[in-house]
Write a structure and sequence with these properties.
CATH class of one domain: Alpha Beta
Pfam families: DHDPS
InterPro entries: Aldolase_TIM, DapA-like
Strand content: 5-15%
Keywords: Lyase
Order of helices and strands: EHEHEHEHEHEHEHEHHHH
CATH topology of one domain: TIM Barrel
Organism: Saitozyma podzolica
Helix content: 40-55%
Protein name: 4-hydroxy-2-oxoglutarate aldolase, mitochondrial
Structural class: alpha/beta
Number of helices: 11
Shape: globular
CATH superfamily of one domain: Aldolase class I
Length: 338
């Protein structure tokens, strides 16, 4: 098992104890076009490299967008190690986050956290158990996260996502209690509740190392306005530079350029959300120039439909064009200049 302050792969570089503000990408996972749909390690590495070079502040591997529920424990470790090595080779110091570590028991979640640390992750992003929703009282959820954080060799990020946890909503009181734990680094709000983020930002001044992140970017100017410190957004798979530039511009208020870029992001993110996981993957391969077969999710999820492809092509064209313009100009986010 590794401990805070060491690299899980080779012990060579210190791990961050605080989750830095910024834009993080919950990456998609690419599979080979074979009957077994094995991991396409070459294409995944290529994608990790593109995201690192764009100057994102970190990457979430094996999150919801990455189809984590379909990955084996060994595949999870492979992807974390691959991301760790790829980002190190590029020289991007951003955080490697192991996503969707949560399990249906505390013991299994702890085991997954240990695996993630051993593979080189800096943080874990964890859902709470939800199979027996009536038993998941605020007290039970608090106990789960505190036990996980006590045992995890790397800091925990709370994943607030009612859509995949039987509709269970973690209120601000619960999140603020958890923010006091020394090994809980922050929260990802995929409940998309800007009011909740505002309350928590106003109430966590005694926990300065607790980072509050949005779970999307289509309301980027809104969450920045209330003080939230960044986002974990799937849109950064296809437009990482646009997402980072918009976030950086927004630090100085909603300028006309920030508003223009935020509109492109909001339009693109709505389109991706309507297409679900295959729409997200298809948009990513179009933007990044990957082969069409890479859009396939693991079975039994069906291939992306012709209607979804046409809709994505139409509605993300302006966003992708802006991304390519920024890339041609040599723009990179601030993470690479640290």
């Amino acid at each position: 098992m590794t401990t805070n302050g060491t690299n899980g792969t080779n012990g060579a570089s210190p791990r961050p104890k605080k989750l830095s503000p910024g834009v993080y990408c919950p990456t998609v996972t690419f599979f080979r076009a074979t009957p077994g749909q094995e991991l396409d390690l070459e294409l995944n590495a290529r994608h990790f490299e593109k995201l690192a070079r764009a100057g994102l502040h970190g990457i979430v591997v094996q999150g919801s967008t990455a189809e984590a529920v379909s990955l084996t424990p060994e595949e999870r470790k492979q992807l974390i190690s691959l991301a760790r090595d790829t980002w190190a080779n590029i020289g991007n110091p951003g955080a490697i986050i192991a996503g969707t570590v949560g399990a249906q028991s505390t013991g299994e979640a702890i085991r997954l956290a240990q695996d993630a640390a051993d593979a080189g992750a800096d943080f874990i992003l964890s859902l709470h158990p939800n199979y027996f929703p009536a038993a998941m009282t605020p007290e039970a959820i608090q106990g789960f996260f505190e036990d996980l954080a006590d045992a995890s060799p790397i800091p925990v990020i709370i994943y607030s996502y009612p859509g995949v946890t039987s509709g269970i909503v973690m209120d601000s009181d619960l999140i603020l209690r958890l923010s006091a734990h020394p090994n809980i680094a922050g929260v990802k709000h995929t409940d998309h509740d800007v009011g909740k983020m505002c309350r928590e930002m106003a109430s966590t001044k005694k926990s300065p190392d607790f980072t509050i992140l949005a779970g999307a970017s289509d309301y980027l100017l809104g969450f920045v306005a209330v003080g939230a410190q960044g986002t974990i957004t799937g849109t950064s798979n296809l437009a990482p530079r646009v997402c980072v530039k918009t976030w950086e511009l927004a630090q100085n208020g909603p300028s006309p350029e920030a508003t223009r870029l935020a509109g492109l992001i909001a339009r693109g993110e709505w389109t991706i959300a309507r297409g679900s996981i295959t729409g997200q993957k298809y948009a990513t391969i179009v933007a990044q120039g990957y082969p069409l077969e890479a859009a396939a999710a693991r079975k039994p999820i069906l291939p992306v439909s012709a209607a979804t492809r046409a809709h994505v092509d139409s509605e993300t064209a302006d966003l992708i064009a802006e991304e390519r313009k920024l890339e041609k100009e040599g723009y990179t986010g601030s993470a690479l200049s640290q």
